[in-house]
Amino acid sequence: MIKQSAPIGVFDSGLGGISVLREIHRLLPAEQLIYIADSGHAPYGSKSTEYITQRCLQLSDFLLEQGAKMLVVACNTATAHAIDTMREQKLSVPVIGMEPAVKPAARLTQSGVIGVLATQQTVKSQRLQRLIHDYANGVKVVAQACPGLVEHVEKGDFASLELKGLLADYTTPLIKQGADVIVLGCTHYPFLAAALHEIVGPRITILETSNAVAQHVSRLLIKHELQTSADQQGSVSFYSSKVDAVHRQSMQLLWQQSLELDLLPSHYLTIPPQMPVPDPQ
Prior knowledge:
alpha/beta
């Protein structure tokens, strides 16, 4: 029997999932939350499906050991490549994932062209192709892989000239093809929204899905009768597979509140030896 007061487990390949965590905490302040930044293995976008899946299963095991009543995969790449396997193996709790906002973008566009900024693995994923097929009928979707953006967010860089150069390189092809809506298909990217707006201008609509995911979490808690009593005071615990001064400072900057950061237990820091670890492509 899962307790209503049990925590919700949230994880991402790094710090990007804090964009989702903030929305869940804002909407559901009574809930206990546990967040894992798997920054020691970031970025997932350059890893194989097998690697990503193994890390997701390991992090899920840790969160379930902490008594989690729900898992939120606050990472588009992990959702695209691992959530089906997670749901097959983690049937004891609801598992929520992320999907790029292709459906609302297709409704909003006036030009008939939308852009998607995402990691290499998300751009190549069948899950994104299914979203486009199901919800973007008659709309041109330009998907752009964005290597390097995750790393900038991980080190707390949201406005450097180097970062803005990358953003200009990645958005220019979308604008040239007529995109008037740009979907942020990675949870790290909302932290770059200010720089993006500066580059693409006010006529381009930028969409991300952290609020929609928080709303879905709320609905599922009610459906499964797992919501914590509203008179409780929630808390947030932070873990990472990498703890150093820069990483801690970046996390503090993104969370915008005081936090205590703990390193994951040692047996959760690396892929088990029975799972071959591919080199990033």
